[in-house]
Give the backbone structure.
Amino acid sequence: MATIDTANWEPKILAFACNWCTYTGADLAGLNRMKYPENVRIIRVPCSGRVNPQFIIRGFQKGFDGVIVCGCHPGDCHYTSGNYFTRRRFLLMKRLLEFTGIDIGRFQARWISGSEAGKFRDTMKKVTEEIRALGPNQKFKEAGNNG
């Protein structure tokens, strides 16, 4: 496996964002020219409750160093209870990742509404710094994946 120059290394973050809240907050952050790390890749999903645990594992396999699932605040879900499913899955995913040897700090869930552009920006910065402190993720990477 190739060695990674950790001095110039930037973590790759995969963010699943609820269409109704978090993605709108990310869009608002962009419209207001709020800067957040460029290494965050956002995937818009209808609801945070629709994020299958396989998507998270696949993100790590594809070379992402951290994965975050963002959705509406509990009680404000467009689909009534999707974020409650997310909260339950979050606990199970942490156990699964711990079992497989991935640092559980590499996976996070956050509640960000459409009007919280500043919170979106700050969350992405904080998550990027936390993943940077953990270093590159070498677990689960597919053979031959250049990241």
